[in-house]
Amino acid sequence: MTAGGTEGNMEGLFIAREIYPDGVLYISEDAHYSLQKIANILRMRYIIIRSLENGEINYDELEHNIQGNKHKPVILSLTCGTTVRGAYDNLEKVKEVLERNQITKKYIHVDAALSGMIVPFISRAPQYTFDKGIDSVAISMHKFLGCPLMSGIVITKKEYADRISTKVEYINSHDTTILGSRNGQVPLYVYAAIQKYCTDRFALDAKRCISRAKYLYSKLKKINIAAKLNKFSTTVYFFTPNRKIVDKWQLSVYGNIAHVVVMQHVTRDMIDRFVKDLERNR
Q1: Residue 124: CB partners within 8 Å, gap ≥ 6?
Q2: Range of the domain at 212
Q3: Which of 21, 72, 225, 235 is buried deepest, with most CB atoms within 10 A?
Q4: What CATH number is associated with residue 160?
Q5: Pick from 189, 217, 247: which residue ends a domain?
Q6: Do residues 174 and 224 both lie within one domain?
């Protein structure tokens, strides 16, 4: 367990660097800002790949850059639900790029901070699993799960965790973490939530959020707002409205794009009021 998504991403990339010290890290321009910070801390060489219009990594540009560094191991940080556009990097397309270029030394980390608790419960949604070729995944517990303290989980293969394991005599344990000391209350919250809600509740919440995101998208289209919504996403994005709307509804803004992340508390009534405000103050 981690203190949040950034530590989870750092753990995954730390393991990758230990396996491939001379590897090159590839991240998309839509990847979470923590990735560049982590790469600098770990002194990893990294290349930023432009994104497609919907926020996915640009697979052609990724291939071009990999071909230019074929002598180096490939370390990839893919995103399951990008921050601004809610896009899913296509794992199968990335694997095709690696196979086409005969890349054998590779490590795939997945930043699934929010959507890692959504897509497993949605049929036909993108899946990022170890049997599909990933090596580690980081998921936040204070987002979709709703843990009241900042927290997350990073999952990797035991053989990889063992590579960074250090025997600490005075605590009579092996340490495989970044922070060492951690909040012991967080695992209790997470365990309690999983025991209380189980997968049926998670599936219901995931479907409800996606349905309401589609509802918001359709309402915006009806008033001629050029909104966009990626498939299986809960993030609806559109051109940034005026400051009055941004401030009132606490919209997150990135350049000329604003977005609404539809979580469990977002009701249809709330969406109706937001759209009405947007129409009045467009």
Answers
A1: none
A2: 202-280
A3: 235
A4: 3.40.640.10
A5: 189
A6: no
Q: Which residues of the chain have pLDDT under 50?
A: none
211 plus 115 within the same structural domain: no
| Position 195 in a domain | no
What is the C-alpha to C-alpha distance for residues 63 and 98, in angstroms, rounded to an integer? 8
* Per-residue pLDDT tens digits for 167-194: 888 888 888 888 888 889 999 999 999 8
If asked whether residues 246 and 211 sit together in one domain, one would say yes
3-state secondary structure the chain: CECCHHHHHHHHHHHHHHHCCCCEEEEECCCCCHHHHHHHHCCCEEEEECECCCCCECHHHHHHHHHCCCCCCEEEEEEECCCCCCCECCHHHHHHHHHHCCCCCEEEEEECCCHHHCHHHCCCCCCCCHHHCCCEEEEECCCCCCCCCCCEEEEECHHHHHHCCEEEHHHCEEECCCCCCCCCHHHHHHHHHHHHHHHHHHHHHHHHHHHHHHHHHHHHHHCCCCCEECCCCCEEEEECCCHHHHHHCCCEEECCEEEEECCCCCCHHHHHHHHHHHHHCC
Structure tokens at 230: 């990626």
Look at residue 170 in the predicted model and tell me its pLDDT: 85
CA distance 128 to 26: 17
Residue finishing a domain among 189, 216, 251:
189
Spatial CB neighbours of 176, under 8 Å, sequence gap ≥ 6 = 161, 162, 164, 165, 166
For the segment 73-95, what is each residue's pLDDT rounded down to a tens digit? 999 999 999 999 999 999 999 99
Q: What is the count of structural domains for the chain?
A: 2
Whether 45 is in a domain gets the answer yes
Residue 179 corresponds to which tokens in the numbers above? Answer: 């922070």
Q: Are residues 157 and 36 in the same domain?
A: yes
Question: Which residues are marked as active site?
Answer: 233
Distance (Å, whole) CA 208 – CA 227: 20
